[in-house]
Amino acid sequence: MNLSEELIYRGFQAETTISDPTTLDTRESKKFYWGADPSADSLTIGNLAALMMCACFVRHGYKPYLLVGGATGQIGDPKENSERDLKSLDEVEHNKACIRSQIERIIKSDNMTMVDNYDWFKNINYLDFLREVGKAFSMTQLLDRQFVQNRIGAGGSGISYAEFSYTLIQGYDFLHLFREHGVSLQLCGADQYGNCTSGIHLIKRLEDADADVWSTPLIIDPVTGRKFGKSEGNAVWLASTDNGSGNYTSIFDFYQFWLNQPDDSVEYLLKIYTLLDKSEIEDILKHHSETPENRLAQKTLARCVTEIVHGKENAKAIENLTNLLFDKNTDFAEFSTDEISEFAKFLPTITKGTDLVDALVTTGLAESKKKAREFISGNAISINGIKVNESLILNQTAIIKKGKNKFAVVE
Fold first, then answer.
1. Are 50 and 188 in contact (CB under 8 A)?
2. What is d(CA 62, CA 373) in angstroms, rounded to the nearest whole number?
């Protein structure tokens, strides 16, 4: 399967300036760039979909230029309905370091170049930027952008000059990478397509050269119909521990997210989020359809995505832990202290001597003490497999279970 066929098979095709996808297979300049702003200290699985598209290009011989927006992150990509809060410079630096390490872990390529647009923007004179870039755009072009129309139209919240100018800054990134590295292709999510065309416009206007954009559809949560991402409030983060902002998803919860996907979505997600080829996916789906109760497709999806983001060792450990915790024949009382300590690497943990109500709140199994007491009185809580209906002090190493699939460890 060549690149164009694989992109279409996996669903990595939305708006693009490329009329014939097969030209990607023989493109003279096999260099692309993809960028992310440090608006948080972790990427999400929405970003991961775009990175999986990038990885597809890399497998077919393209050189990636992966950009972390130290400059654009100081302004913020305009939202559809309101102004972004500005990040402090220290926060931008912290976020840059966090997401850069995530990108490097997912795109494994000796040919990869990481870049930061602050490196070229920090020395640009404002008047020079207006003369070169500002004069290349008409106000009509900029006012026609959908996000601008949403913000300045009837009932809109308005837009600052800083956010209005964001598209010029991003366009200049493409121009700079074209001039310095010969990059003539930008990859993006479909929501960034308009901003990306600013770079095409600048390259044509100032260099009299052609460039292209290839975008991938936004990934939609099949249950809620909303896109996966932090702006929608349903983010599944790539960070597995808290980097200071609370933007993380434990490896256990990450694995469970994929394991609990419905049958209607699993083929779609296997194509996007795994490295399995077409024959492997078809074989998995065939066996899954024969015995859907075994959830082979979901188990494969969960293992493969967790391997990509968190490594094979963690994926295997979580797979084994899940099998133990959800096996109806498992006797929780038989787990040794050492085994429970191993579980603590992946589950919320509380120290011995803690009251059960406090433990449920601290570990996130309950959002308040009132809810914790309701769970206890409603027989939704068990300690080492034994239901409890009153609060108690947790004085022994144990596994707390809430409902069917939430766990914590006492050690």
1. yes
2. 56
| DSSP H or E segment with residue 10 | helix 3-10
CATH 3.40.50.1820 fits 331-411, yes or no: no
Report the distance separating Cα 108 and Cα 325, nearest Å: 33
Residue-wise pLDDT for 44-86, tens only, equals 999 999 999 999 999 999 999 999 999 999 988 887 778 888 8
CA-closest candidate to residue 335, choices 383, 393, 403, 387: 383
Taken as a whole, the chain contains a residue count of 411
The 10 Å Cβ neighbour count of residue 28 is: 6
CATH architecture group of domain 250-330: Orthogonal Bundle (1.10)
Q: Which amino acid is at 29?
A: S
pLDDT digits (tens, 9 = 90+) for 77-136: 887 778 888 889 999 999 999 999 999 999 988 899 999 999 999 999 999 999 999 999
What is the model's pTM? Answer: 0.89
Structure tokens belonging to residue 187:
């990859």
Distance, CA of 286 to CA of 291 (rounded, Å): 9
Whether residue 242 contacts residue 248, with contact meaning beta carbons closer than 8 Å, is answered with: yes
Architecture of domain 3-229: 3-Layer(aba) Sandwich (3.40)
Question: Helices 278-290 and 296-310: crossing angle, nearest 10°?
Answer: 140
**What are the boundaries of each domain within the chain?**
3-229, 250-330, 331-411
Which residue has 């996000």 as its token pair?
Answer: 147
Decide whether 3-229 matches 331-411 in CATH topology: no
DSSP, res 334: G
